[in-house]
Structure formats: C-alpha cells, structure tokens
C-alpha cells in the first residue's frame, strides 16, 4: 500500500474505521492527494492526541487547563476573530483596554490617564520581551542624549530565570548577568544583584513565582537597595517584574506585600493571563507605570484596512478569544472569586506539600509555599541506598495518568534532581488525595526493587539521562566528599 493515497475514496457512508485512511500510515511528509470525510479526518487527528496525558492531570504546567462552560462557549464563539482587526471588531480592543486598566489598578498603578499604558501579549514570553525592549530603548535614548556608547547593554536576573530571558538576551544581544542561587539565597539576593549593575544595566528583573522553585524574589528589598544604589551612583536603573504567576496570586492572597507599582523603581510588570489569570493558553499582559515609560518607537501606527491603529507587540495577527476569556473571568469571578480560587489552589498545594514531607523518601525544597506550587527532592540519606530516582517515580506516576515532572535545577544551584507539583484551578482535594495515594503506591513498588534502575545507575556513573547530564543531589551517595 502506498503512503498518503486512498485508492477507494471515502464516502459519506464509509464507516470511519472501515476506511482506507485508517488503514494507511498517517501523512507525515506530503499533503494527501485526495480529501477524506470530515468524520474520518476528525477521528484521525483526535486519536493522534489520544495517548497523551489528560491536561488536568498535567501537574507540570502552570497554564490553565480548566475553564467553566460559559467561558469555553464564549471563547469558542470568538475563535474566528483576529484581534488585530480593531476597526472591524472595536469592542474587542476596548475589552482589552479594560483588562489592561484592571490589571494596572490591581497592581497599584499611579497612572491617572483613562487608558493605562499596557499591551496584550501571547503569553508572558512576549510580555517579558516587550518590557525588556522598553527598558533597553529608554536606556539607549538616555545614553545617546548623554553622548555615551550604547553598544554594551546588560540586565541582571537570578540564575532561575525562565527561558524567555535567555531568548531576550540572544535576540537583542543584551548581556544577561545571572545572580547565582544557593541554598542560603534561594531567591535573588539584592546585594549580589547590585554588584553586577553598572552604567550599562538596562534593568533588574526579579521574578514573582520563580518557575523552578515556586518562590518569590523580594522586590521590596531590591527596590530599597536599588534606590540607595541609584542615589549613590547617579544611575537610574529600573525594575521589570516578571510576575508570570505571581501577578495573579499576590494581589489576591497577599495584598499587603509590596512588589508592584507601589515601589519606586518598578516601571513595568508582565504576567501570563493564561497561568493564574485562569484563561486558556495564548494570553499575556505587560503594564507600564506610565505612558512615558513606553518608548514611542514601540508603538507602531499602522494604516490597516482603512484605519490608523496603534499597535504594541511582536505579533501582528493574534487570537481575540483569550481577551474575551479574561474579561469574562474578571466579570464572572470578581476580586473575591479570584481570591477564593487562588486560596483553594494554595491550600491544596500546602496540604500536598505537608503530605509529601511525611513520606520517608522526600524532603521539600522550601518550608513555605508562597505560590500554589512546590518542589521536593529525595532525602540525601535515603538516596544513598535507594535503587531508584525521581525519574522512575515520574514514569510510575505516568502509568496512572499523572504528569509530575522530575528535573534538575539550573546550573550554579546546588545540584538537585527535583520534582515539581503545580496546583491550578481544576485540582480538588479529592484529586490530590488520589495523586498522593498513587505516589505512596509507586514508592512502595520502587522500594521492592532488587536491582538499581537505569537512571539510578546513570546517577552513579555520571551519565546523561534524557539527553541531559544527570546531576546529583548535594550529597549523592557516589560523590559525597568529592564535590
Ligand atoms: C511561564 C513563565 C514565563 C513564560 O510565560 P509564557 O506565558 O509561557 O510565555 C516567563 N517567566 C516566568 C517566571 C514564567 O513562569
């Protein structure tokens, strides 16, 4: 049988699984010559995704995997709307502006204008880029005015940065200076950060909801230290807060904590509408303290389909549905509704954190849970005689449908293999109890092993696992004393 051809054309009567298409390998290189019925095409595509983890059992992701029926309906109904067609769909642009206003106010923006300075993005990645580019252009403009060189910009961030910052550094050729995390300084150390700052520093980027650990950098302490530093040096290095997760957690659960525009040097903040903003993927936001911090070069005025629109963003066309989803959530949930959902996620995360700590093999990375996620690792003493690793636990849990990722922490950190659990809307106490039971059962099975697993052997031999060099816990059986 030849790939990608249907000798007998499917008709409306053809049974899906009686069709030639279902007998042929899936098209991978060329478009099939002939069409098939929508039922068959649907089934093929749907089945391609069939063996994957159920999104709600995917505890690796921060991104929304549950929205209510009305939100889903609204978003599906808007699936054919391109956000950029503002002339044709002006109400969507207005809705986006309202969301920007609400976020700016939620983050205590001092801006008085009716429409606050901000932009819609595809996710935090685009939002971070926009915040970073704005900081870079402001710095460049100031340096040019002073007749100083602008060829060596840098920014300062902790080594637990999300990959978007590496992209930002690479794409715009801006040096990324990393403040290493240590077991003593598990978040960005302001003093260490300042040591890396100079006249070429475009901004410092603290993270609220560090992707790798779930912790928050102390923006208030950084702001204070930076204020003194700027006074002393005459620089005016600002802060961009990467609040991908924290931007939608802190205002509801820790309103007294200052991390936002209440702080002097915070000029921009980015967040993911599709993380704890509770909208399905494809949404981010960036807000500036005031329009004057959004460089004019970034606002493109385009004459498009007969109207002049101002656009800030890397993408041009983009889906509008997410804006409807965000605005719906704001109306549907209100402040109190968001608070209840985030509180539940937090309580479930704390409960899970406490239960994990009670299991013999594990130790939590942090005593505190400040965002609804946490990481844990194997107790060094347990690991010494264990015949398995967290990678094996991950594989075991996958058998019951859970995706709980094991990974190594960023370089420079003490070399931990950790496991992370992210709790989101859609995770109930009952579900987490099922997960905990599955973890206990998996551990019981792994403890019965007579011989070490291949990942455990790799650990002893320093071999790469899953394409990565397998690093160790700080007191690995094989290496203790050698480090
Ligand atoms: C998730 C995340 C990003 C990237 O966000 P996307 O919305 O996935 O594009 C950036 N920074 C941090 C801290 C994150 O957690």
Question: What brief labels describe this structure?
Answer:
about 475 residues, alpha+beta, MYOD Basic-Helix-Loop-Helix Domain, subunit B, Aspartate Aminotransferase, domain 2, Aspartate Aminotransferase, domain 1, 4-stranded mixed β-sheet, 4-stranded antiparallel β-sheet, about 35% helix, globular, disordered C terminus, binds pyridoxal-5'-phosphate
Write structural notes for this entry.
The structure is a single chain. The chain is built from 13 helices and 15 strands. The protein is α+β, with helices and mostly antiparallel strands and 483 residues long. A four-stranded mixed beta sheet has the order 1-7-6-5, sandwiched between helices. Strands 10-11-13-12 form a four-stranded antiparallel beta sheet. It is globular, with a radius of gyration of 25 Å. The model is unreliable at 466-483 (pLDDT under 50). The structure holds pyridoxal-5'-phosphate. Pyridoxal-5'-phosphate (PLP) is lined by residues 62, 123-125, 128, 162, 164, 207, 209, 211, 242, 244-245, 272, 284. Pyridoxal-5'-phosphate is lined by residues 62, 123-125, 128, 162, 164, 207, 209, 211, 242, 244-245, 272, 284.
